[in-house]
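Lab notebook, bench 4. The sequencing result for the construct came back, and we need a structural model before the next group meeting so we can plan mutations. Quick request posted to the team channel:

Model the 3D structure of this chain.
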Amino acid sequence: MLYLVSALPGWLLWLIIFALLSGFSLLGLSFLRRKLPETLLAKSHDVAGFYISILGVLYAVILAYGVIAVWEDYADAEKNLQKEASAIADIYRGSLAFGNPFKDELKNHLRNYTNAVINDEWKELGFRKNESGEAMHNYNALHYHINQFNPVSEREKIAYANILIHLNTLSEAKRTRLQDSKSSMEYVVCAVFWSFYDNGFYFIFQGRKF
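Done. Here's the predicted structure in token form:
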């Protein structure tokens, strides 16, 4: 049974849980309304008040959890984006220690990669959750250009070692950014959240006589 549940797609599991919880509550309420007289149901008005209070507290807790989770993910993504931008800036500044043509070509690769991320990949990640082919092409060209260089002087060797460190930082931040673009809140949490929302407000607005 657990294997079947884990094998289901997230959206389908969310839909099943939402349909079961909502359907069970609505069918139960409809059944009680038809089978029990209003005079008997009126005696439960006080109980319904406590039920609404408990439901409101639980809904507030789940809502707070969702807000905090989304805010933390946003803060982590922003921090990682700053990390990637800083790595690009550090590589750009470190290129001043080298002569041409390596220095100018390195700057061009950095500009092309940055423009591709801002103008192309940013939109792709926002709408289709896909990595930009243009950004990946420029990133590979940047990576190859740096790794094929052979420093000669002692000054170049020190600067080259620092550039490799910043390149690794850039690679890590890029992978994390791509992963962050595909992350979302767990479907089970969303199902519980919307189930409380749907059942609770239906009870308040449609089940007032209960």
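The CA atoms of residues 58 and 64 lie 10 Å apart.
Will bring this to the meeting.
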